[in-house]
Amino acid sequence: MASGREKKAPLAVIAAGGTGGHMFPAQALAEDMLHRGWRVILSTDARGARYADGFPEAVERRVVASATFARGGVLAKLAVPFKVLSGIISASVSMIMDRPSVVAGFGGYPSIPALGAAWILRIPRLIHEQNGVLGRVNRLFARRVSAIACGTWPTVLPAGLLGHDIGNPVRASVRDKAAAPYIAPGDYPMSVVIIGGSQGARILSDVVPAAIAMVPPEVRQHLRVAQQARPEDLDRVQASYDAAGIPAEVAPFFADVPRRFSEAQLVIARAGASTLADLTVIGRPSILVPLASALRDEQTVNARGLVAAQAAVMIPESQFTAEALAEHITKVLTTPDAASRMAAAATALGKPDAAMRLSDLAERLAGPPTS
């Protein structure tokens, strides 16, 4: 006999801000929770919704009001508390009508409404911190959640709090390239990929083309470059490569980063947590340039593990010159055995199962399904 009402699958609400650093691991968790039979809602703001195209269609997008003190004038800043409160009220009403079994926050101001509502309603909740230092929103909720999942280990946490060493979840497209065989540098076409991130591509546009032009001709003749650059920098970066006779593809965004990483002999990048997760899961040598303007210098913290494992070279912005970079590029691309060791060391640090581990944690917090 059929029951009077069909039982719903358990619901996970995933709350994340509008940058790839927050949205990529959130997407990875959404993919895994859907695979386990959960319903998933992404809670974000209008800006975050524009970065949600990669989420599976089965994930419901729920846009709630949120705001940050970091942008806008005086009036905009005065309106922040009211916008956040409005978002929390809206999220609370939604959760009362369709109660989640667990709420997972990935940082950024757009995660405040869902986490705030979950705290008010006493719904099991966790935060995932991608970097080695807690961001402002995750720090705000660190003592108000059931668990803290850490993407970079160890993560600096407030006194008395313990974290779970989970790793940074990577999207299915990255897991598909996990531990892809590395082709060491040699006398054949070699790929160098340069990824800067939304905030940090300018200095890479200033320095990298000049550095690659300084690489010895016998190496440079084999190079193929793919560089991410801001729209306003595209023409000058492309012109620099053209003048040096280096085949280059320059674009503000690459939709196929996992493929490009898997085919690369060397990656030059900022040390954002999601980038490093992709690098270690796929396993590629890298030259890392931490973002100096990061408030907590979290990118330097992120990079230390790769440098200690000899999987990467780190160059602080204060020392990031074309000459210094050219020297490191040349060293990696002319020592195939050392480059292969760097790739293997990166792979050893990878956690391709981080999404599964985070899903396991979410399910433990949610407890057994209710009938």
Task: Describe the structure in brief.
It contains 15 helices and 13 strands. The chain has 371 residues and is of the alpha/beta class.
What does the model show?
With 371 residues, the chain is an alpha/beta fold. Helices cover 44% and strands 15% of the residues. The protein contains 15 helices and 13 strands. The strands form two sheets. A seven-stranded parallel beta sheet has the order 3-2-1-4-5-6-7, sandwiched between helices. The protein is elongated. The model has no long low-confidence stretch (mean pLDDT 92).
Q: What is the straight-line distance between the termini? A: 16 Å
What spatial order of strands do you see in the largest sheet? 3-2-1-4-5-6-7
Rg value: 22 Å
Helix share, percent: 40-55%
Identify the quaternary structure here: single chain
Overall shape? elongated
Element pattern in H and E: EHEHEHEHEHEEHEHHEHEHEHEHEHHH
The overall average pLDDT, rounded, is: 92
What summary fits the major beta sheet? 7 strands, parallel
Strand content: 15-25%
Number of helices: 15
Structural class determined from secondary elements: alpha/beta
Number of distinct beta strands: 13
- Poorly predicted ranges: none
Entry keywords:
seven-stranded parallel β-sheet, 15% strand, alpha/beta, elongated, 371 residues, 15 helices
SSE blueprint and pairings:
Layout: E1 11-15, H1 20-35, E2 39-44, H2 46-49, E3 60-63, H3 74-97, E4 102-105, H4 112-121, E5 125-129, H5 136-141, E6 147-150, E7 164-165, H6 172-175, E8 190-195, H7 197-214, H8 217-220, E9 223-228, H9 234-244, E10 248-251, H10 257-263, E11 266-269, H11 273-282, E12 286-288, H12 298-308, E13 312-314, H13 322-333, H14 336-349, H15 354-366
Parallel strand pairs: 1-2, 1-4, 2-3, 4-5, 5-6, 6-7, 8-9, 8-11, 9-10, 11-12, 12-13
Helix pairs in contact: 1-15, 3-4, 7-9, 7-13, 11-14
